[in-house]
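Section 5.1 Outputs to date
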Amino acid sequence: MGGRHHQLAVALEVLGTFRTYSVLRRPPRRLEDHTVLVGLGRVGSRVLERLWELDVPVVCDEKDPSALGVAQARAYGVPVVIGDATQDGVLEAARITRAQALVCLTSDDSTNVEAALYARECHPDIRAVLRLFDDDFANDVYRALKSSYPSAVTRSRSVSFPAAPSLASAMMGRQVIGAVAVGREVILIAAVDVAANAHLNGRTIEQAHRTGAWRILAVDLAEPADRTPDLAHSHPAATELLWNPPPNRLLAGGDLVVLAATREGLGQLLNPQPLGETGTPRPAEST
């Protein structure tokens, strides 16, 4: 009797293992060179749409059957495996060993990394693209995967990094006329009115410079009445920028400068009191 109970327990355990996932539409038996897309949230749905437009064969995996992109995949006729990509059998059901690429776009970093690592065990040469939220972590994962599988194509990208310039511009206000990502730093291009700024007014270009915080790129020579503070809507004829102004040029009321600054630097620059190198208030330097 005990032997039968043991066999039943084993059978139930095996059955439970195979029921960790379901398939809405099975991938064709001979499918190969396809892309396995893990995660059908907002980002995954957009990627699925683009892959479908490009006629790229796709098999999707999503653990939530009510996720945004599941119905979309069904409408496209794309096979979908419902299950956690880190669980046994799920990526196998998506034919991961025959795929040419894996794209992990869930909102959970650990799931994306685990899925990529497991996929590489099954298919060492598979191309892998991971969505990760922390830029430092994304770089660490990239280096680790590249070191372990040097012949494979690996891309690990932080979601927050490409969005940082736009976010910084929105947060800092209308003075910001542009933003660019340099390494892992966001550099803001801003137009600042000298008259209202104690960091700039009455100082030379050289004195106004703050290493690691901001640098003046140009001075607008147009008449104040002919320009807008942020240069965003100025008539072309009203913008007369003097690039690389002389270090000894004195800044005064009526000047508008264009400068490059870090987010922290611009926040400090727009502070009504000038700050010293240590971040404490200090009196204006004599000119």
